[in-house]
Amino acid sequence: MIPTGATIGILGGGQLGRMIAMAAAQLGYRCHVFAPEKDSVAAEVSADFTCASWHDQAALSGFAQDCAVITYEFENVPVAPLAAIPDGRLISGRRALEVAQDRLAEKRFVAELGGRPAPYAAVDGGAADGEAELREAVERVGLPGILKTRRDGYDGKGQWRVASLREIDGLRIPRSGLVFEGLVRFEAEFSVILARRADGVIAFWDSAQNVHQGGILARSFLPPSQAVLDQVDEARALSRKVADALGYVGVMALEFFATADGPVFNEMAPRVHNSGHWTIEGAVTSQFENHVRAICGLPLGDTSTVGGQVEMRNLIGDEAADVAGLLGDPQAHLHLYGKAEARPGRKMGHVTRIG
Ligand code: AMP
Question: Is the model's pTM score more than 0.90?
Answer without folding.
Answer: yes
